[in-house]
Amino acid sequence: MTVITPDLEHSQPKVSDSAVPELLQETFALTRRLFIQLVRRPSTLVAGVLQPLIWLILFGALFAKAPAGLLPGEMAYGRFLAAGVIVFTAFSGALNAGLPVMFDREFGFLDRLLVAPLRSRFSIVLASVLHITSLSLVQSLAIMGAAAALGYGWPGGAGLLLVLLTLLLLVFAVTGLSLGLAFALPGHIELIAVIFVVNLPLLFASTALAPLDFMPTWLAWLASINPLTFAIEPIRNAYAGNLGLSQVVLQAPYGNVTLGAALLALAVLAMALFLIIRPLLDRKLS
Amino acid sequence: MRSWDLCWRQPAAARCWAEQLPRLWTVFDLPGAGVIELAGITKHHGPVRALGGVDLVVQPGSLYGLLGPNGAGKTTLLRILCTLLAPDAGQVHINGIDALNDPRAARGCLGYVAQEVAIDKILSGRELLTLQGDLHHLPRQRLEARIGSLTELLGMGDWLDRRCGSYSGGMRRRLDLATALLHHPPLLILDEPTAGLDLDSRAIVWEVLRRLRGEGTTILLSSHYLEEVDALADRLAILDNGEVIAEGSPAALKERLGGDRLTLRLREFSEAHEAERAASLLRDISGVKQVVLNRAQGNSLNLVISDAAVVSAVRERLTDLSLPVFSLTQSRPSLDDVYLQATGRTLTDAELAVASRRDLSAERKAAMR
Ligand SMILES: Nc1ncnc2c1ncn2[C@@H]1O[C@H](COP(=O)(O)OP(=O)(O)O)[C@@H](O)[C@H]1O
Ligand SMILES: [Mg+2]
């Protein structure tokens, strides 16, 4: 007969237990679950690549015959566009970070996680961050590959690192925002609505599709405080091989922004967002 | 290694067993020391009072039933126990651990089967069990062995590797029971574990619960089926409108009511005043201990009588008074009589009265984290 309850052997304390292996075990398990979902329901992954790909091809074609010399540094429009679409890919990918969490809230799966003696409930958040970061980086790399195939260039070794670092900072910030929304909003319908409303306007009010000079002053102002711009311009420079931190990447109405300042702004934004949502997460996961 | 160091390194589940062992001894000379000790629990959901000061003690190794109609507050109480919900006031102790102060340690001691089974449809049963085992920090090898034995026990072998989305209600419930048992919890908490189940699954659940109890696990289950509580529980509390209205072993509760039951219907639907008049007249008969008017059942009368001989006296009196008799049935007291005695309505009627009034989707939204 199977014994269902513990015999004394089970009551013996395990020796090797400490916080770190337990944290790793629970975080790994939660992350694996998200990846299993992703692999078995790949539509999010595919749609997240297809949409930017269409942008890249359509917009690239639309302005293919733009007069030479229109863009700063005699850049071809396709090259200009590529950085914008890459950032847009990572951005929309990360914006979806809150959706699985929202579904877990709605279906009560979160309760199942919360009755378990987790070392730290932060592992639930960490798993989301790990999952969405790798997902959006993979999507962005796919778009970078597509851009290269279209002849829009490829950053060199150090440039690639700079691209990845920039994307990482942006993804952290946006993931923080999305997770915060997932706990603040009442349901997935509202979350999807917010994602939908935020997505395209942020793209248009950035330097993804056109440089600042093309914009009326009010839009140039908006674009110069848009976090997407702070990711797009460093990547554009990485593609052009300008990797110096003091390199000016944006001539904003309020002054010049260097590459270092742009990255710093993204990092501060990411940290600020996680600090802001922290009390909310503490409350919801308590 | 310092001693506190050792304590801290123990997995939570092992810690609760370790803490329970000495308590098993103290139980005998310290009345009231239980695996679960709830004191003065109150809880409001917005304006709705779900619990109004509940005290409850569950002894180690017993199977305790929480019986009550829909809306009585069973789920609220169990969620508070599982640390999913904070009470407005009161104390929660599990295995001597103050669950409000040290929820993590309390969580390690309990397995919880929720009323509504939340599963991830995309995962297979095995993947869900593995996830749950990792959340309890079980070593991989032990986890796999455990999944094997639970699969056998609950008859899940054929479908464990299929996706949960394809499971029937009974399969889901069994899988959920398995996830709750993975870490050998000394305390198992189940919220209406057999509600809506097919007979096979219900039989399996009952058998597993009996066996677990036999092996020393303390079990607390809620139910609105009085047969279930009557059949399984060593002790029970009847919860109504957020309050414990009766507590004891099923036999003792019925015994306390005493005597036989007699259900009298003057007409199929009697007038209240006629039934009330009959009630007051029947109370005078010697051997009639009590008469309760059941308004929900067409103003029928429920009599407690000292012995079977009283039945003919009742019949005679009714004839003398020329009151009509639609039906007169005799029975042994049941738990339903206990409930009826305390509330003036049967459990089934209370169930029906509330079920249609609750807006479950609104409640689910309000309960969302
Ligand atoms: N999240 C909620 N929001 C509002 N009211 C609730 C909520 N949960 C439960 N209630 C109310 O609290 C009372 C007790 O509910 P519950 O604990 O679910 O009872 P039971 O499990 O015995 O059916 C009921 O009146 C119910 O309508
Ligand atoms: Mg309930």
Automatic annotation (TrEMBL), chain A:
Residues 43-284 form the ABC transmembrane type-2 domain. One of its GO terms (molecular function) is ABC-type transporter activity. Its main location: membrane. The chain crosses the membrane at residues 42-64, 76-103, 124-154, 160-184, 191-212, 257-277. Pfam families: ABC2_membrane. It comes from the Bacteria. InterPro entries: ABC2_TM, ABC2_TM_bact-type, ABC_2_transport, T7SS_ABC-Transporter. GO terms for cellular component: ATP-binding cassette (ABC) transporter complex. Keywords: Cell membrane, Membrane, Transmembrane, Transmembrane helix, Transport. This is Transport permease protein. It comes from Aphanocapsa feldmannii 277cV. The lineage of its organism: Bacteria, Bacillati, Cyanobacteriota, Cyanophyceae, Oscillatoriophycideae.
